[in-house]
């Protein structure tokens, strides 16, 4: 029990360090910059209230498990702690720098991608507020400008995947930052349009661009693409979890292998998420040999083997879909593939030499799903449904290998 609880204890210890370091740093900076007693107390108390709110949100997200965080941040919560400490020191230091140079746009993106949208937003607002409070002549205009730009940036970068393009999100975020910076100078500082008016915003945008590209490159290599490596591992037929299924029940193993082949062919042909569909095909019946097919009975297999978040989400959707929710295209690919494979295996088990009209069988499966109204639960068009049927019919040679 001690070993199981130690990670949670370590995280809580890190959160405690975040709390006390925040109060200590803000108090020390306020004191050594000759702030008044009232300002020192205000800065310290507000900072402790804000970090307290951030820690509460972190603990609340942790209580929801992996679903509470983006990517694999649940298993790597120390990333956010490190980013927070750096951001805290940066926000204190930025109070000594002209606000036109503050690179908070990129800070918002970093904080959200290392936690989740809400935590990143609240922490970013805290850092901007801290810089404004510690600044000699800070005001609401700087707070509005950088918080609004941060909100836009978080919205633009909130769903990054391995094949995501960062060009448009980067352009929109920087464009919004430029508009806000120029508006700040014209509307709040009453400056006239001139070359100097655009010089500082240009430097700010360059700094944000450099920080964004540097972070997103590292994030892509060490976080997003890491899930691709995990997919390659768990989608290997020699992966221990799949091998154990083969040892327990060969019929279930071959059913999974053949379903995965068809589902992958469909997904690749229609630009669905092929690797997630393949994982779902392999492992959604991993508990079948023991008669365990419910989500609560088998989800531990996916957690213990560190399945990518999107794969776990697809497995959950396929095994135990939420009532009234629209199911993904990948789920449909797996369902139809599994139904076709199960039907062929059933017929061959009854008579190994039977001649099967595969086109007729596939049409029968598709017509049945259509008449039962199951298609209305899936995010799929009739055109995609017809394309799935054509892909299934092209695999006649493969079906003969099932004998």
Briefly summarize what is shown:
With 403 residues, the chain is mostly helical. 73% of the residues lie in helices and 0% in strands.
Written overview of the protein:
This protein folds into 2 domains: 2-224, no CATH class; 235-400, Hypothetical protein af1432 (Orthogonal Bundle), CATH 1.10.3210. It has 403 residues and is an all-alpha fold. Helix 2 runs antiparallel to helix 5, helix 3 packs parallel to helix 5 (117-134) and helix 5 runs antiparallel to helix 6. The chain contains 17 helices and no strands. It is elongated and about 90 Å long. Helix content is 73%, strand content 0%. It has helices spanning 2-32, 37-63, 78-94, 104-113, 117-134, 140-156, 167-188, 195-234, 240-248, 250-269, 274-283, 295-304, 309-319, 329-350, 358-371, 382-393, 396-400. The mean pLDDT is 89.
What share of residues are in beta strands?
under 5%
- Radius of gyration based on Cα positions: 27 Å
SSE series? HHHHHHHHHHHHHHHHH
The total of beta strands comes to 0
Low-pLDDT ranges = none
Query: Oligomeric status of the shown chains?
Result: single chain
Number of helices: 17
The helix/strand class is: mainly alpha
- Helical percentage: over 70%
Termini gap? 49 Å
Number of domains: 2
Task: Provide the residue-averaged pLDDT.
Answer: 89
